[in-house]
């Protein structure tokens, strides 16, 4: 037993002398490779504060902020499904105005780009019952005159015109992608 005790002090002394000798170890220069004697890990500390939410401004530089939502576009276009996927990949969803102020923000973006955009609502499940992407029923609307009309029986998505009015439209056409974050 005394032999093990003496050996452990000898090893400890050797490691200590190597790790504290400036000539033999400069942790900064050796990427923290200095020898050390590891012990039993301690308890974990309390979790740190949450980080800030990432900024999507680099993906969508042109936007409007209303009621805590930010509506943005990068000027690209896509079908309804492609637009939904693009917004989801950027950490948002397809613009889904729930008030006249939010609708006005989206309208300003489409007007600036001179292109209609899909909104994040459709009546794919039940004709005539428009639902948001999350499954809740649409309460706020801003339909153009005589809309929605399901022309040709193939208009299940909603587009917003340059004047802010809505039209039901086929989901396969290409429209400006406007996301909300």
UniProtKB/TrEMBL annotation:
> SMART domains given for it?
CLECT
Signal sequence annotation:
1-17
Calcium keyword on record: no
Cited SUPFAM superfamilies: C-type lectin-like
Show the Gene3D superfamilies listed in the entry: Mannose-Binding Protein A, subunit A (3.10.100.10)
Principal localization?
secreted
Q: Which UniProt keywords apply?
A: Disulfide bond, Lectin, Secreted, Signal
- The segments labelled Disordered in the record are 38-60
Q: Which GO terms label this protein's molecular function in UniProt?
A: carbohydrate binding; growth factor activity
Q: Where is the C-type lectin domain?
A: 66-180
**Family annotation (InterPro entries):** C-type_lectin-like, C-type_lectin-like/link_sf, C-type_lectin_CS, CLec_Tetranectin-domain, CTDL_fold
Domain of life (superkingdom): Eukaryota
Q: Which terms under GO biological process does the entry name?
A: ossification
Q: Name one GO cellular component term.
A: extracellular space
Location of this chain's protein in the cell: Secreted
Q: What is this protein called?
A: C-type lectin domain-containing protein
